[in-house]
Design a protein that fits this description.
Helix content is 48%, strand content 0%. The chain is an all-alpha fold and 52 residues long. The longest helix is centred in the middle third of the chain and has 13 residues, at 21-33. The protein is built from 2 helices and no strands.
């Protein structure tokens, strides 16, 4: 026994799950508020590293 499962499976798509409305609204509201000043540099660095 290897602990690996070689059975085929289908990755779920975006249509397979819809987040609760309250969660979606909370995310949208947080995007409007912007980034806390004390985290701005860390967040910019994170996205810069992702793009390199």
């Amino acid at each position: 026994m290897t602990g690996l499962d070689f059975e085929r499976f289908r990755l779920p798509g975006k249509e397979d799950y819809k987040a609760p409305r309250s969660f979606r609204e909370e995310i949208l509201e947080s995007l409007k508020q912007g980034v806390p000043p004390q985290l701005r540099e860390q967040i910019e660095s994170y996205f810069k590293n992702l793009s390199e």
